[in-house]
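does this look right to u?? 73E version
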Amino acid sequence: MNSPDTTVQQAKREHTRTGMSKDAFQRDLLDNLFYIQGRFREVATPHDLYMAAAYTTRDRLLARWVKSAQTFKATHARTVCYLSAEYLLGPHLASNLVNLGITETARAAAEELGMDMDALIEEEEEPGLGNGGLGRLAACFMESLATCQIPAIGYGIRYEFGIFKQAIEDGWQVEKGDNWLRNGNPWEIPRPKISFAVGFGGHTESYRDERSQVRLRWQPAFEIRGVAYDTPILGYGSQNVNLLRLWKAEASESLDLQAFNTGDYYGAVHAKIEAETLSKVLYPNDEPEAGKELRLKQQYFLVSCSMQDMIRLHLNTVGPLEGFADKFTVQLNDTHPALAVAELMRLLLDRHAMTWEEAWGITHKTFCYTNHTLLPEALETWPVSLFERLLPRHLEIIYEINRRFLDEVRMRFLGDEARVRRMSLIAEGHERRVRMAHLAVVGSHAVNGVAKLHSYLVKAMLFKDFAELWPERFHNVTNGVTPRRFVVVANPRLAKLITETCGQDDWIRDLEQLRALEPHVDDAGLQGRWQEVKRAAKQDLAQWMKQATGIELDPESMFDVQAKRIHEYKRQHLKVLHIVRCYQRIKQGQVQGLVPRTFIFGGKAAPGYFMAKLIIKLINAVAEVVNNDPQVNDWIRVAFMPDFNVKNGQRLYPAAELSEQISLAGKEASGTGNMKFSMNGALTIGTLDGANIEIREAVGPENFFLFGLTAEEVLQRQMTGYRPWEYYQNDPELKSDLDLINSGLFSHGDTQLFRPLTDNLINHDPFMVLADYRAYLECQEQVDRIYRDPERWTRMSILNVARIGYFSSDRAIREYAERIWQVGPQPVLDTEH
Ligand code: 73E
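got this back:
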């Protein structure tokens, strides 16, 4: 406990060092500029100023952080550990200012010094430690956990290079390294003393312990160290700060000693470098098999450091490990950290001398698993041979888990050996492989999908056998996104309008309160201001796009946006076919009923995914022709926003009027961009896929543009045989659109360039683009009709926002807390009051 003396000192320190007044912020900004950046105002670069602002903000959140840690320690608070290979955090500064409640203060302080806060915010390079939705979800969840006052630690990897930066050259995607740490990262605090050894390779051996019991242990061939780097995650409207702990790989000290002492200086340096490659780079998804060994190593590295850290924390605070599952609940973000199941078993068995039953009881009570995809290529399996080589002890443990588990299956389903084979943790075949999803399901007491339809399909298809064995284990928690970042930070004008209309800003932490907008939906004053807010965001985006790409957008036209990873199942090429159709209609003078539109795309393709990269080229090829043809220019323009990331997303969501959510039904587990767009007043055109279904129910079917096959119809077609060429032959417009792409018009006469794409559509079309083409076009005509009535459109837009409250990540976190984690809030008190 603090003595009264130290408490007074502490309060004093807070007051003088981190006061929340404008003057205090201003003083510290200059102070940090001088003492941390070693600069004075006149010579400071914009980056110096950003760093000073970041440190000044960080200073103001440290008191809360320390108080949170003290509270959680004193109360033995049950803690959520989120295990994720990815965190797509986005820039910290603006969001931390909002969550500290000092945006206006900081802005005023900077302005008086002649600095433009927005320009400083622009300077920040975001940590792109994720691929897309899965990593961004982890970031939203960390923020909502703090907002909901639930003690949490997010564990991940401190990749030195995050997701590549995307440049567009000659219409093609070009990947550039993301050296995000180059200029320093003011938000993290290194913890060199919190570090763990992680073994690889070697063999296992038996020995007798002090009680003469025969036990097993692993003698790894080499070790790497993981060092903790901590980043505070603030909540909104709460004093709670949670911890994001990312592991950096370093060479182990023992290696240092051995090699340097034997005189092999260069050998030692080489080994050091090799150890550090482990946390060097984030793997893009959809990458081919090759080079995957490093990925398994990364996964084990994450899992081993994190489980060792939890055990250390437990021994330091609570004591004996029997109560581990009462102190911690661990959420596995997909199967990437599923090895944690085997690692916790190993630590409890080999290091803490538990029996199998004791260890399994704890492990099984500790873990929960979220599945994020049904796509077969994303379901992880690892060759047994690789396990034998890298993780021999874990393989033994997995075999033993499997043996006991399959015994249970055999008892329940006598004589059903086919079922046993389907459920085994090991896939037999040409090459035996470990099925990580089965390990995650067997090792967890709760399994969930990320939207209603997805969770249903998880139970009915992917894990059907498991759901028959353990129906009570399966849940749904529909995803959500944080309104702090995606409305308050991204769209301050809209936030202000909402607050003024509702008469309060409680909606920011209780998003259902957006319903207070509904009674005002027909208010002409609100409608006018709503349109002005959208218009201003469109102008902002147009300005940015002009400067970034040279493309001029017309803010008078409808902004129709598809922004997400480029993937065939997301069907960016369906959108392109719509654009080509518009182009042809305009060329033929059929402009009746057409509304001027700007089509905006954003998204990265995995570097090894040829078809996705060709889709990017096609978009840019069509853009080039359309944007340079004065005959169509007044009607349509096409822009590809390079390097779609969190920061650029924050520019897009506020400006979008139409949100494209057009994946083939059954393929998009949830989607979260759909929620971000709708929260910013865009109307959705979408299929009955993922969370679209629930968004449509929430905002009302009359405020949503629906088209396309249902998941069930998709399955039926697949079973009865889908023949895309029949659509090609029977729909003259479709044929003419595909033929135009093949004509060379968009490729300077090259008739072969897009063949792989068009041939695939006509002959295979695995994502049924052609089957949904006609319905999509008809739906787009409906969009045009309604857009021509601005009052009606605005009304629908307001209703989308008013009814989107359910899709706050706060709601998702509360559901996890109640149904999955059995954990409650632990408020951190504001001792300044
Ligand atoms: O539908 C999205 C979902 O909204 C899904 O595709 C995505 O997760 C989002 C959040 O739940 C996702 N990402 C991955 N799998 N599903 C993935 C797979 C391998 C590597 C990286 C990410």
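The pocket of 73E is lined by residues 131, 133-134, 137, 285, 334, 372-373, 378, 450, 479, 668-672, 690 (CB under 6 Å). idk if thats expected tbh
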